[in-house]
Amino acid sequence: MRNETALFGDIQLNKKICNALLEMGFEEPSPIQAKTIPLVLEGHDVLGQAQTGTGKTAAFGIPTIERIDEKEKYVQALVITPTRELAIQVAEELNKIGKYMHIKTLPVYGGQMIERQIRALRAGAKVIVGTPGRLIDHINRGTVKLDKIKMLILDEADEMLDMGFIDDIREIMSHIDRENCQTLLFSATMPMQISKLAQSYMNNPQRVLISREHLTVPSIDQIYYETKNKFEGLCRVLDVDCTGKYIIFCRTKKGVDDLIAALEARGYLAGGLHGDMNQAQRQRVMKKYKKNQIDILAATDVAARGIDIEDISHVVNYDIPQDHESYVHRIGRTGRAGRSGIAITFIEPREYRQLRAIEKLIKHRLIRGYLPTSADVLELQKEAIKGKVVKILEENRYHDYHMIVADLTADGYDAYDIAAAAIKLAVEGLKKASEDDSDMEERLANSGGSPGMVRLFINIGRNKKIRPEDIVRCIASEADIPGSIIGSIDIYDKFTFVEVPKDVAERVIAVMDKNKLRGYKIAVEPAKKKV
Questions:
Q1: What are 95-144's pLDDT values in tens digits?
Q2: What is the DSSP letter of 153?
Q3: Residue 273: in which H helix or E strand, if any?
Q4: CA distance linking residue 76 with residue 181, whole number of Å
Q5: Exposed/middle/buried for 1, CB within 10 Å: 0-12, 13-18, 19+?
Q6: Hey, CA dihedral for 138, 143, 147, 152, is it positive or negative?
Q7: Burial, 441: exposed, middle or buried (Cβ in 10 Å; 0-12, 13-18, 19+)?
Q8: Cβ pair 30, 55 in contact under 8 A
Q9: CA torsion, points 248, 251, 254, 257, in degrees to nearest 10?
Q10: DSSP strand pairing (151-154 vs 296-299)
């Protein structure tokens, strides 16, 4: 039976892949995807020069999954990455793309028990994403066979060169039948050794270059807030700065629907736009927005493209965009016609590196903002809340709730506390606990740091002439924190321990791990508790 096809932008793909992409929030190809995917589907080798944050994983992942034969059980595609973190990230994305085609992608990397990986390989995987050292280990054991590989992808080739993996890559490639294998190579820069590797192993590669786009919107204040509860943070911003028109960008259609439902439940006047809405629904929402009957509009990138309104005061990236070009297009919707504008981006701690990548590509540093406290919001809302409560009291229709108050007072609760809790419930609703990474929380809690601090391990030390001021300067600059809050630093011959406050520890790890310190690539993780 022939597979049904559908369009992803102007690109024809298996309908199952398109369904997965829509679920992931990819409604239209990014520039690198639009340029790369057709070339790969035509069978060309591709040499791509693109930075992190441009959407390149999907650029090679989509055509790779498209070209996999679902019926064959052997490994058909290999992705080589420099780090285990990237291997896991790429494998997760490819598994999402191949979800409805039931194409399994398996990451293999050092630091995980090899026996577990061997069992997973025997269970069957059509795509492998691996780090060079662990791949060679599997090749030597005979647990990974590359003789039938028809697609090879080298991701972040310059990073692998910096980390000394070039010989390992050549060793891996020697086990692949180059005549029957399509090769894709992606690199942020193109040093001589990478160019030579491409010339040696690739067949007339087509070049794809994604240039850096520059901001031309100096009148826009660009702020970011770091929080583990984006919705709560958004509500606080809306409550404190309630004037003007907001457009809020979400990654997916479901994200728009969920956000609008949550905002309306809190009493905000909001409407949504996304691709599943018909023209009449869209026009109805836009009419309300233009007439100021609603002042908050949530939208996906694609749905927002037809909007031409000059008086948008705030653009909010509720979900951080997948590439810097989307960021530029989004924030360009405010600050028009000579007006000033505010662009707000919400990030979780693990997204800090993605934010830094966008900053580097747009050559602009965002201002770190601090969310208003509950007390700040309450002070602004106090009179309005009192007025609403007085109105309910005057209407005298609250007797059905007397029994709840009576039960609570009988249980020993103070009447003033009950009233305050009821108002808090009415204003804030029931908050769901955020789903933190429990493993990371546990590691941070058990790092052996001083009270309120997390002790971090850095795999570089005195033998590289590292000094305490180097560490303070690098962490303060990259993590955007004052150097004065960094705690004790213990430098040994080959490694270093440094303490940072608990509330910034995840961010420090996110930006420093695999970063460079005085030209040396480093690894940073929570230290193990002193025994």
A1: 999 999 999 999 998 878 888 899 989 888 999 999 999 999 999 999 99
A2: E
A3: strand 270-273
A4: 10
A5: exposed
A6: negative
A7: exposed
A8: yes
A9: 0
A10: unpaired
Go through the chain and tell me how many residues it has. 531
- For residue 510, give both structure tokens: 């996110």
Query: 425 Cβ partners below 8 Å, 6+ apart?
Result: none
Report the C-alpha gap between 279 and 282 in whole angstroms.
5
Distance CA 304, CA 246 (A): 13
Look up residue 293 and give its two tokens: 């009957």
Element at 154 (helix H, strand E)? strand 151-154
Neighbours of 406 (CB within 10 A): 10
CA 430/CA 447 separation, integer angstroms: 33
CB of 487 within 8 A of CB of 453?
yes
Rounded distance, CA 504 to CA 216, Å? 32
Tokens 């029931």 correspond to 430
What is the CB-side half-sphere exposure of residue 358 using CA atoms within 13 A? Answer: 25
3-state secondary structure of 155: coil
> In the predicted model, what is the mean pLDDT of the chain?
86
Nearest to 97 by CA among 63, 132, 48: 63
Amino acid symbol at 232: E
For helices 166-173 and 192-201, the axis angle rounded to 10 degrees is: 0
Q: Is 222 helix (H, G, I), strand (E, B) or coil?
A: strand
Cβ-based burial of 48 (10 A; exposed 0-12, middle 13-18, buried ≥19):
buried
Provide the token pair at 328: 């530029």
Instruction: Using DSSP, state whether 213 is helix, strand or coil.
Output: coil
How far is 386 from 394, CA to CA, in rounded Å? 12
Token pair of 273, please? Answer: 């736009």
Exposure b/e, 409-421, CB count within 10 A at least 16 = b: eeeeeeeeebeee
For the segment 348-372, what is each residue's pLDDT rounded down to a tens digit?
Answer: 888 888 898 888 888 888 988 888 8
Q: How far apart are CA 446 and CA 82, in angstroms?
A: 28
* Other Cβ atoms closer than 10 A to 506: 23
Decide: 504 and 481 in contact? Cβ < 8 Å: yes
Distance from first CA to last CA of the chain, Å, rounded?
62
